[in-house]
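User: Reviewer 2 asked us to show a designed sequence for the structure in our supplementary figure. I'm pasting the structure tokens here. Could you produce the per-position amino acids so we can include them in the response letter?
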């Protein structure tokens, strides 16, 4: 079985990794109907969540283990870490185990960029960013692959996180506008990415502040678990909603606060051309991203095709598969 570490993954560099990630993700969204899909399994604590995210086609079964612990950065740890496993459907034998922390950031950013490609104004230039933690630079990187972003308006309630972001972006050639709150960020933006990590029902800005910005595309990635949202419910009520997998988003996304069935499109329908991208009559479009297992499957399928990692024997190697006890004989 192959073990693939973060170091193995970073060796190819971000550009090549992101280009591949986008290609595998787009391919898999293009064959959405072939997958066995389900909402993820979650165990909640006051301070965080543990999730298992399975997805399979007829060749491979995969799952990702992932957490979200908003208090971790104060302990010097990431809020989110993840591990993945890809198995052979024919035999059930695992084929690889890999770090999915980095690939979670990459696949989320790739999904955001793909959604923006179809749903944001094509000449989008001003990006708003609320939350400048671990995901933030990946989100910027991805949007830059699709749009000529000239200005980023950003805010985080942690000044050190804003300084880190500014430092990482200082050679980007993008004009950086540090803002004092979410209300200031949203002024005049074409694309807005919200990516805070707080297990609470947060309102980062009022709907009234954006309601006349009728070409706005909002990519909300931080509201991704019951009781954890970022946006004004009035905004959610009034936007065109696009989700990854409704069955899961209904309980985890910004739309969790809306009663009854919510009118929506799934992103695969738009990628496959079955539903329209941005239409003139759309107004604000909200991509209510929570993270879906198919995107993780795509990342593991991508790793599987790469000649990286190291072979390690974790499972029993037996001459007679019925003689498991022989492992204790010398
Ligand atoms: N949708 C997806 O597919 C997906 C994938 C990965 C992560 N996420 C979510 O994205 C979010 C960000 O993840 P991360 O890894 O960057 O976390 P992180 O902890 O590294 O960064 C979050 C940042 O938000 C800031 N913040 C928290 N509350 C705030 C508030 N009220 N106002 C302004 N800033 C605030 C924190 O100071 C921190 O810098 C998390 O909620 C995570 O669960 C979603």
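Assistant: Here is a per-position design you can include in the supplement:
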């Amino acid at each position: 079985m192959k073990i693939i570490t973060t170091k193995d993954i970073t060796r190819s560099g971000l550009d090549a990794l992101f280009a591949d990630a986008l290609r595998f993700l787009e391919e898999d969204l293009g064959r959405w109907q072939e997958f066995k899909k389900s909402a993820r399994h979650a165990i909640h604590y006051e301070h965080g969540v543990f999730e298992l995210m399975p997805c399979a086609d007829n060749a491979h079964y995969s799952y990702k283990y992932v957490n979200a612990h908003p208090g971790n950065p104060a302990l010097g740890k990431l809020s989110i870490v993840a591990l993945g496993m890809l198995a052979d459907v024919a035999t059930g034998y695992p084929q690889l185990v890999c770090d999915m922390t980095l690939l979670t950031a990459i696949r989320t950013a790739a999904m955001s960029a793909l959604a923006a490609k179809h749903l944001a104004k094509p000449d989008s230039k001003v990006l708003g960013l609320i939350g400048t933690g671990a995901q933030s630079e990946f989100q910027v990187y991805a949007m830059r692959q699709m749009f000529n972003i000239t200005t980023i308006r950003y805010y985080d309630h942690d000044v050190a996180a804003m300084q880190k972001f500014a430092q990482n972006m200082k050679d980007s050639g993008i004009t950086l506008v540090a803002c004092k709150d979410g209300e200031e960020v949203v002024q005049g933006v074409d694309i807005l990415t919200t990516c805070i990590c707080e297990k609470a029902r947060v309102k980062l800005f009022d709907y009234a502040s954006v309601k006349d910005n009728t070409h706005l595309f909002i990519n909300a990635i931080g509201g991704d678990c019951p009781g954890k949202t970022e946006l004004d419910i009035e905004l959610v009520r009034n936007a065109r909603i696009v989700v990854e997998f409704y069955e899961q988003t209904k309980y985890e996304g910004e739309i969790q606060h809306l009663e009854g069935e919510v009118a929506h499109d799934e992103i695969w329908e738009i990628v496959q051309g079955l539903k329209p991208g941005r239409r003139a009559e759309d107004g604000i479009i909200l991509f209510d991203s929570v993270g879906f297992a198919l995107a993780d499957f795509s990342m593991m399928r991508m790793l599987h095709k790469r000649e990286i990692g190291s072979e390690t024997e974790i499972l029993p190697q037996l001459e007679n598969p019925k003689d498991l006890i022989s492992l204790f004989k010398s």
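For the response letter, you might also mention the following. The chain has ten helices and 16 strands. The pocket of nicotinamide-adenine-dinucleotide is lined by residues 68, 73, 79-80, 104, 108, 130-136, 156-158, 161, 195-198, 202, 221-222, 224, 289-291 (CB under 6 Å).
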